[in-house]
Structure formats: structure tokens, C-alpha cells
Amino acid sequence: MITMDDIIREGHPTLRKRAEKVTFPLSDEKQKLAAQLMEFLENSQDEEIAKKYKLRAGVGLAAPQVNQSIRMTAVLVPGPEGEKPEFKHVLVNPTIISESVQKAALAEGEGCLSVDREVPGYVPRANRIKLRWYDLEGNEHIDRLKGYPAIVVQHEIDHLNGILFFDHINKDNPFEAPEGTLILE
Q1: Each residue of 145-175: pLDDT tens digit?
Q2: Which Gene3D superfamilies match (predicted)?
Q3: How confident is the model at residue 82 (pLDDT cuts 50, 70, 90)?
Q4: Would you name the residues annotated as active-site residues?
Q5: SS3 letters for the chain?
């Protein structure tokens, strides 16, 4: 089981490397990693388990964050209370095929399990994306995401490219976003 102790933090060189493409079929080791990444997200979103193991809540966890420099990430965007998740997948070799000109940013900014400090500011990202990814069996999927799920997936793909969320924040004026940016509450 992955805990906060397994997650590498800002400053670790793996977080700034471009992760290697994954080949199929997945090894048993990679299958296990995929299951553990998703298990962490499920546990982190369960109040009792999170409290017991001192887990910070997360909606995404990329393999590089546990010091595995491969293009794999788990995403678990919860749905409305008591309903199925809005987007729940382990994405292998995800690629953004196209993105909207319209930008969006979270009103409260973004956080990251690998960053133990608050970094205030808007993180402008595409409001809509068309995503190509592969499941654990190597089947191709194409999804169109918008708003919060699109932002989460872009944050995770950044991890696969050695980018951290605060790299996108305007250094001179953190709460200045490109004109027309949707600010999501």
C-alpha cells in the first residue's frame, strides 16, 4: 500500500524528468503499480482510511511521484455525493490530442501530493481536452473532458513531462490569468 512516505517531494530529480513510454503487455510489476496508484486515491478519499494512515486527499497520482519514471497515472475524480466517480482510470501513455483555446483555472489554485507547501495562484489550463490513453490491457481509449476532470488530467500529464503545477503560475502576479480564463469554483 502506498502511503505519503512513498511519495517523493519537490526537489527530487525524478519529478523533473520526462517519463519513459510504457510498453505492452505490462509486466506484473507495472500491473501492481497501477493497482497501488488507484488504491492510494481510493484510500485518500475515504475519510477513515485517510485519517488512519495520515494520507492527504488526492484526485490523481502519477508513477513519477512514487519514483517510477514511466508514463502511467491514476485519476479518480469523485462524482456527486453517493454517485459513481466522474472519471476513474489508470491512464497508460496518455496524450492530449487537442485542447480548447478557452482556458480554465481553479479558484483556490492547485495543490500536489509532491508539494508540501501552498503555492497560491491561478494555474491556467485548457478548459476542454481530447485525450488518448491506453488501459492496462493496451486498449486505446479517446475521451473528451472539460472543466475539473480536464484540469486534473493535465496536472497528471504534466508530472509525466517533468512539469509541476506552479510552473504555470504567473510569477509577477499569481492571480492574473490570461484574458477570458474561466475561474472554476
Answers
A1: 999 999 999 999 999 999 999 999 999 999 9
A2: Peptide deformylase (3.90.45.10)
A3: confident
A4: 156
A5: CCCHHHCCCCCCHHHHCCCECCCCCCCHHHHHHHHHHHHHHHHHCCHHHHHHHCCCCCCEEEHHHHCCCECEEEEEECCCCCCCCCEEEEEEEEEEEEECCCEEEECCCCCECCECCCCCCCCCEECEEEEEEECCCCCEEEEEEECHHHHHHHHHHHHHCCCCHHHHCCCCCCCCCCCCCEEEC
